[in-house]
Amino acid sequence: MRNTVKISVAVAAASAVALGASACSAPSDTTASTDKNDKNAPLVVAASPTPHGAILDFVKNKLAAKAGLKLVVKPFNDYKIPNKVTDDGQVDANFFQHKPFLDVFNKENGTHIVPVQNVLIEPLGVYSKKIDKLSQLKSGSTVSVPNDPSNEGRALKLLADNGVITLKPGVGSDAKLTDVKDDKGVKITELEAAQTAPRIDDVDAAIINGNFAIGAHLKPSKDALALEKAKDNPYANFLAVKKGNENDPRIKKLAKLLNSPEVKKFIEDKYKDGSVIPAFGPAKS
């Protein structure tokens, strides 16, 4: 058995950073209100464009006005900037992440973001432009995984669940590369999550987050060689705010709307391929 995992680390693409940076410098009418007691101020929410931004746009265009909520959606094709601009007050909330990712981010960056309301689950999938089934992966094959700790653990577990690699006993979705007991000769390449889809041609297979798969026009139910199970999945994506802002009346309005029957129907109608699944309910801090 081979116990050495071959790793190559890719730096996040400048384009993703540029997109986030440009969004941060948007006009003043899209920045968070400095008066948190102003119930009529627009609520500015940072979000991944797909599916989070699309869902927020639906709320903005179809539901918000009736609920007395002015909603501004700021898209970020990045997994770091949304929490930073939420923590420093440039935006009021964000919608793009799950709890394991947030826990690691808060710990590593000294931020104080807390979850408010669960909304959806995006099953992680394995995709390829070079093979038709995972059994075709052999010694020397390359597989890319997201490089953030929580999603990398999910990716490694998905590979292990499908027999591509073997993890040490007792290791689950919190796996690290050092927890790989046998890589079976497969070379695991770490990439910024946003780059796994654009660089799929560089590897034999890529594990891609649901939102980035959708953005790359991949259909999980059709195109994925293996898909993370949605049942009992702990990775629900939620609306999040800086600690202390959970009781902002605007946040409460948005949380209610994001768990409404209308949003449930929108998700089920728009993402019939199973790439996005409603997962409503209060989020655990």
Overview of this protein structure:
Residues 1-23 form the signal peptide. This is Lipoprotein. There is one protein chain. Helices cover 31% and strands 21% of the residues. It contains nine helices and 13 strands. A six-stranded mixed beta sheet has the order 2-1-3-12-4-13, with helices on both faces. The longest helix is centred in the first third of the chain and has 15 residues, at 49-63.
> What helical percentage do the residues reach?
25-40%
Outline type: globular
Radius of gyration, whole Å: 19 Å
Q: What does the largest sheet look like?
A: 6 strands, mixed
What is the rounded distance between the termini? Answer: 41 Å
* Residue fraction in strands: 15-25%
Helix vs. strand class: alpha/beta
Tally of DSSP helical segments:
9
Low-confidence stretches: 1-29
How many beta strands in the DSSP annotation? 13
What strand line-up does the widest sheet have?
2-1-3-12-4-13
Order of helices and strands: HEHEHEHEEEHEEEEHHEEHHE
Compact summary:
With 285 residues, this protein is an alpha/beta fold.
For the structure shown, list the relevant keywords:
alpha/beta; disordered N terminus; 6-stranded mixed sheet; Lipoprotein; globular; 285 residues
Write the layout of secondary structure elements.
Layout: H1 14-24, E1 43-47, H2 49-63, E2 71-75, H3 81-87, E3 93-97, H4 99-109, E4 113-121, E5 125-127, E6 142-146, H5 149-161, E7 166-167, E8 180-182, E9 187-191, E10 205-208, H6 210-215, H7 220-223, E11 226-227, E12 237-242, H8 249-258, H9 261-270, E13 277-282
Parallel strand pairs: 1-2, 1-3, 6-9, 6-10
Antiparallel strand pairs: 3-12, 4-12, 4-13, 5-10, 5-11, 7-8
